[in-house]
Specification:
By secondary structure, the chain is of the alpha/beta class. The chain has two domains: 152 residues, Rossmann fold, CATH 3.40.50.300; 64 residues. 33% of the residues lie in helices and 23% in strands. It is built from seven helices and ten strands. The strands form two sheets. It has a six-stranded mixed beta sheet, with helices on both faces. A four-stranded antiparallel beta sheet has the order 2-1-4-5. Helix 5 links the parallel strand 7 and strand 8. The two termini are 33 Å apart.
Length: 261
């Protein structure tokens, strides 16, 4: 397990666009932290910087107390699209994430993960033979085969239907309880953040900054129909609307579609 600490992080692109300014975020070992906010608040930029896929203009990123730059073997990621390699079988796609492992250990983990994601015996199939939800399950397994200290999730459930999305939420939580990676996730879905996260970082846009950080003190498994769950969702929505108040008047409200979507 690994802590993630972001201090004074800023990102300005070559064209002068300031994506992030002075961002401070911390995730404890084994904690799930969700980044939530309107368009232009730099959620994905922040995740890319932690993943080492881009370089910060200012500030530092520390993993387990060690300042890092660039990619790190303790960090793995799942993106909006499964990004499976079509020329590899399902089993080989999962195994690709554990290519540093000895062959026997890698195969044992592939078989175990196939069973955990509900695809036992499917290692010889091709990605094109799977549904979108099944492909995303494989992508999650690929990210976890190396037992990473940090797992980054960049809206990996956004393209899925509600039922499949809920099933994958349960899968991620099940694997998280077993392997206990520190998870930092980007989402536009308030309910998803409340279901999964220990803390929610609400960001404000232009440039991206932290508006407030909210603790989710709800027992797991979380009951989506419980009054406390609904109250937490409303509190997060209010925080997001506050984050947008400086840049645009919200067009939505608690009874309709919020302006930030």
């Amino acid at each position: 397990m690994t802590t993630v600490t972001v201090r004074g992080l800023g990102k300005t692109y070559a064209d002068g666009t300031e994506a992030l300014r002075g961002v401070d975020v911390h995730a404890d070992e084994g904690e799930i932290v969700a980044l939530l906010g309107g368009s232009g608040c730099g959620k994905t930029t922040l995740l890319r910087l932690v993943a080492g896929l881009d370089v910060a203009s200012t500030g530092t990123i520390s993993l387990g107390g060690e300042v890092v730059s660039g990619t790190h073997p303790a960090v793995s990621a799942v993106f909006q699209e499964p990004r499976l390699l079509p020329w590899l079988s399902v089993g080989d796609n999962i195994g690709f994430g554990g290519r540093r492992l000895a062959k026997a250990e890698r195969q044992a983990r592939v078989d175990g993960l196939l069973a955990r994601i509900g695809l036992p015996g499917a290692g010889g199939r091709w990605p094109r033979e799977l549904s979108g939800g099944q492909q995303q399950r494989v992508a999650i397994a690929r990210a976890l085969i190396g037992h990473p200290g940090v797992l980054l999730l960049d809206e990996p459930f956004s393209a899925l239907d509600t039922f499949t999305r809920g099933t994958l939420h349960d899968l991620v939580l099940s694997l998280w309880r077993e392997l206990r990676p520190t998870i930092v996730m980007v989402t536009h879905d308030i309910e998803e953040a409340v279901v999964l996260a220990d803390r929610i970082v609400v960001m404000k846009p232009h440039p991206g900054r932290v508006q407030e950080i909210m603790q989710v003190d709800l027992p797991r498994p979380r009951d989506r129909l419980a009054p406390q769950f609904d109250l937490m969702k409303r509190n997060v929505l209010r925080a997001i609307n506050r984050s947008l108040a400086e840049t645009a008047r919200p067009r939505g409200g608690e009874g309709g579609v919020p302006a930030w979507i």
